[in-house]
């Protein structure tokens, strides 16, 4: 018994030491990277930022934008990567509540599963701001996101113009059932229906994934050799379909994507893609920090804030993320 | 399917299916070796991403595509060696070891890439994924070559006999003088190497290395192996079965796209077809 206790204690000490080691290492690295942010917390406020995943350039750009804004405003930002797992996000929020942060910015991996986490923060009287996706219940100070229905409409308009109102098009769907997929589809389908000469001949899921889009598009091209346009619900899929079209040696197929990834923007600039409806995740992240600080300071903020969309066609000045 | 869509049986489409199957087939061939020893390798998707990223990274930093590709393959070998040593010499369960290394290798990929895709790869490298040789895409030839070499290893060499022996009954194999640990390491190295090769081909096909490439591919590979009639308990199974299994999966995805099946139904249909295929397979064996 005594021995067991000893082992346990030793394990406890060891893991505490390890954790402390990790913590200090992280601090020192952020300190060297962003000297000003940690030394002088002008406002003295701490904001927790729980992001759904950092395994995706979009959310990395969002994190970077938020971090830059926090540095500018002198706010301490604690970033947690949820690895697309709602339950780890739940734990991270609980930890932030324990640390008594002044506000939480949440980019939820699941709208349903994170509702309870938001309610916990509500009980602890810590304001929550949601970014990009919101939660189903619980009180949120403001929800900041791009208007995905509008993005879908903008994409449809580009194809209608380029095809002069007639021809067959393909729609590549993202992960079925996600709000981005539903809204982009809704906007696109409604708008494309206004051009009676344009037919959506294939609508297939490729899960927002480049490799899947490459294979799916290759298959679709077999069944529909005469398509004139592609609407991909994100840039990863637009780039995958571009590769399929290039491999099939097809010319003159107009591709429109959504997101604003650098690689897609490059392809718009060199004419391989028709257009991109760019979101601006770094601005979205910055807006999150801005508004979190406003809420902390007791200023009023609107219940929803639209993060800007930008239409990028050949020649548009836009750097992408 | 050929009735439903006249495009299915065209040469172009069949060559497409072969091309789309090649990545999974490479992983599944490696997986067959591992499963024959009654092990499992859950880290293949992560190894694919890691070696693809490192190769692409080296190329964009000025290394010649050839040397970068060698380095990428070495990454796969080292990753497999790591798995193999833990399973063979560490006497740890393969499921747990590769579950851990799956996360570890994925983490290393994210650290290396900062979560961003690496693109702007030269045409000379992209040929590996997009090139053609005698009417068929290069990856299809590579798949064919790997299959032949794998078949020879399993059916015409001592190595193969011993792998079956280890999977059939590890203790008996040990008592009969088979260096069990050495063979356990070997199968994970083969699996790691083929995962790396698949990673290079995928990167070359896409013209970019994606940090989240290959997510879930381990399950596709295992499905192909099981569809092909290999026993998850080891000792029993064939490579030709695995290749057929991989092709069944490829044909299902292709067919669902050609028929423009609604997204909501695709996964359900896929699952049912796989279950039916496995049942037919088992019936044949028991007869």
UniProtKB/TrEMBL annotation, chain A:
Protein localization: Cell envelope
Keyword Signal carried by entry: yes
Gene3D superfamilies attached to this UniProt entry: 3.40.50.2300
Domain of life: Bacteria
Keywords carried by this UniProt record: Signal
Signal peptide: 1-20
Occurrences of domain Periplasmic binding protein (ranges): 47-299
Key word Membrane present: no
PANTHER family: D-ALLOSE-BINDING PERIPLASMIC PROTEIN-RELATED
Family that this chain belongs to: Belongs to the bacterial solute-binding protein 2 family.
Name this protein carries in UniProt: D-ribose ABC transporter substrate-binding protein
From TrEMBL, chain B:
Subcellular location: Cell membrane
Pfam families (alphabetical): BPD_transp_2
Membrane topology: Multi-pass membrane protein
CDD domains noted in UniProt: TM_PBP1_transp_AraH_like
Transmembrane portions of the chain: 66-86, 92-109, 130-154, 183-204, 225-251
Keywords of this entry: Cell membrane, Membrane, Transmembrane, Transmembrane helix
Protein name listed in UniProt: Ribose ABC transporter permease
